[in-house]
Amino acid sequence: MATIRKLANPYLNYSSSSSFGTRSSSSEPKFIVDLRTSNSNRLAGSKLSFVINPSNRGSLCVKCSQVDGNGSSVKRTTLHDLYERQGQSPWYDNLCRPVTDLIPLIESGVRGVTSNPAIFQKAISTSNAYNDQFRELVQAGKDIDSVYWELVVKDIQDACKLFETIYDKTDGGDGYVSVEVSPKLADDTEGTVEAAKWLHKKVERSNVYIKIPATAPCIPSIKEVISLGISVNVTLIFSLARYEAVIDAYLDGLEASGLSDLSRVTSVASFFVSRVDTLVDKMLEKIGTPEALDLRGKAANAQAALAYKLYQKKFSGPRWEALVKKGAKKQRLLWASTSVKNPAYPDTLYVDPLIGPDTVSTMPDQALQAFIDHGSVARTIDANVSEAEGIYSALEKLGIDWSFVGSQLELEGVDSFKKAFDSLIDSLQEKANTLKLVDWDGYAIGYYGRIFEACNKTKGDSFEGDDKDFFKFRVGSQEVIPAFEEAITGMSLGGIRSVSCYSKFQCGYI
Predict the structure, then answer these.
(1) pLDDT tens-digit profile of 334-371?
(2) For residue 197, what are the contacts with CB-CB under 8 A and spacing of at least 6?
(3) Three-class secondary structure of residue 186 per DSSP
(4) Fewer CB within 10 Å of terminal CB in the chain, N or C?
(5) Is 211 a catalytic residue?
(6) What pTM value is reported for the model?
(7) What residues have CB less than 8 Å from 423, skipping those under 6 apart?
(8) Which residue among the candidates 47, 211, 223, 330 is catalytic per the annotation?
(9) Residue partners of 191: CB distance under 8 A and separation at least 6
(10) Assign residue 359 a region: left if phi > 0, alpha if psi is -120 to 50, beta otherwise?
């Protein structure tokens, strides 16, 4: 049965969200069409909305949209097709406040989030959204490192909440949010294990991934953390040799766990792509031969295709089958660094050619928008493995040392994250210094320097007196006028600064 009823206000603005939250509105009169079955339950999966064209009252426009289980309309994008048709999970490589900005992305098909120290450095240092929590933490006496982690953990927890539905629907197969241990621990095996344990307990969400770098000292850390039942996103993988070591660490950790049910211990291996081309292209341009120049922009995807071949090999056979019997899940390959660094290359260069089942592609804004707009959905990762092997070998023959490429990019990646982390800590410390408690002792002089008799005070006398305590406030707390805060910010202990203030009060001018 279908019933049509007019809205109470037929000219209410109608908003429709695109995949990135862009809104449009109209003032056309609206009617609701209510489709019901014989038992009066709403039909799931479809919705009709009738819009009367004001210029032609006799015509009706019928619009149809898919509806999810909660009754809200869902706009399909290439991200939905990517997951449903090819088994690749699209993730978003960014996180900032408010985390509710992720909602339209989730509706567009995003199924997880990755973060790193550089992302948080940008988010926290350029946004006012963290100010209130930051002020509370500093005033509570927290040290800056603790303040940083409190800010980060809140974002991670809030994001995990948004992705819980996906995590539950896929039985822990998707819907993860990644947070990285301190990049300063990249050479500290035991320190990384302890940090991962602490961070996992601190976040306390089943769909969190603890990110650990794939440095040589952290390979044993990965095994240990996995054996403790903690899910891990292994990051900064730049070479096939290191990737194989990462897979082995995951398998070793599962075998050492002693758990009878391994289904909740999962992992992804973040294999970086665009940065490989950035370095190799420079090496090829230095060689300068036509053959070398023709291979520019091909190294990263060729190596990625071979990484997928290695993935298929390692997650098969008797050893893996024994773990599957205990519920183990494959450590999915995750393509990271998918944004194009060279503007001459297609903007989906590190997304379109790397599509395959049981993989993840994490994309920053530019790559994500480009793929939604004009990306192609097809299985491409193993479409031409022989060509990838040929490119890989040709680069070696030209003198490209793949082990050097991997080591150099790893050093650069770790260093980049360390610098971002240190920069953020320094900026947070500087910001905290402006919130220090200020005790001040001042006196007033009159207009043009004449002594002014303050209300109930002796001419020229100090505001400090037997009948009045110091006035105490915190800079940034908005307890005094902004000009006064600005004047005293940066003063050292015992310093003196002259402040001119012209304000009209009932007792005169000061």
Answers:
(1) 999 999 999 999 999 999 999 999 999 999 999 999 99
(2) 225, 228, 230
(3) coil
(4) N
(5) yes
(6) 0.74
(7) 121, 125
(8) 211
(9) 185
(10) beta
